[in-house]
Specification:
6 helices; mainly alpha; three-stranded antiparallel β-sheet
């Protein structure tokens, strides 16, 4: 009986010692080592790829898109549709999850893509004004009309064929922080006019914030909208 109790006590003691050692190694030493290595070698990425403005304040992450909308007339009205603030470069649409989604305005609660096919609502194989309301084609046509209207200025008329696909469709996640150089260039005249800037100055801003393909052949050229608008905000206005 005494031997059994002694063996039990030794087993409990060994288990407690193993628990203590593993807790120190796995719960303290390992996390501190991983955190230290991440901060030393990949500090920016480890902290969430933060973007700061000219005052040093964090304005967001380069990995997550944001909207640039005017304040609602009635903040408590959930049915009111926010209108884009046309002083800023606009991101991709974020309503690609469809009407049953909570992720309609770059919400981080949920990410994903619509399950509609590319020809959902198409007439004769094309998205036209005759597309049924609520279909993907109807959304694309409406988005295209809005892009043309919003970005046409007194001296610059946007042509329908100049509107790129990413201007009227959301990404797979609905949270894409980047737009194509073509969509950024389409917005240059409107941004310059709204901010009383020279078009050449805004063109250079877009060029400076255009990232090429990774390793020269992977992916597509892109422009991070948050980084671009942060740089735009820092420009001196006339």
């Amino acid at each position: 009986m005494n031997n059994s109790a002694g063996n039990t006590a030794r087993l409990i003691g060994a288990g407690l010692r193993a628990l203590l050692v593993l807790t120190v190694i796995c719960g303290i030493i390992y996390p501190l080592a991983v955190t230290g290595i991440a901060q030393a070698l990949f500090g920016d990425k480890a902290n969430g790829s933060e973007i700061k403005d000219s005052s040093g304040q964090v304005v967001g992450s380069s990995l997550i898109g944001q909207t640039y909308d005017l304040p609602k007339q009635d903040p408590d009205d959930a049915e009111e549709t926010a209108k884009p603030d046309l002083r800023w470069f606009q991101p991709r649409p974020s309503n690609g999850l469809g009407g049953n989604s909570v992720n309609t305005r770059y919400s981080l609660i949920l990410s994903g893509a619509t399950n509609r096919s590319a020809d959902n609502g198409a007439v004769g194989g094309r998205c036209t004004e005759d597309a049924a309301e609520g279909t993907l084609c109807a959304q694309v046509v409406a988005a295209k009309d809005a892009v043309i209207a919003d970005n046409s200025t007194a001296g610059y008329q946007v042509k329908p064929e100049d509107v790129p696909a990413d201007a009227v469709t959301s990404s797979g996640s609905g949270l894409d922080p980047d737009i194509s150089p073509a969509y950024a260039e389409l917005q240059i005249h409107r941004v310059a006019e709204r901010n009383k800037l020279d078009v050449k100055q805004v063109e250079k801003l877009v060029s400076d914030h255009t990232t090429g393909r990774f390793l020269g052949f992977m992916g597509e050229p892109r422009v991070n909208v948050l980084e671009l608008n942060t740089a735009l905000k820092a420009l001196p206005k006339s």
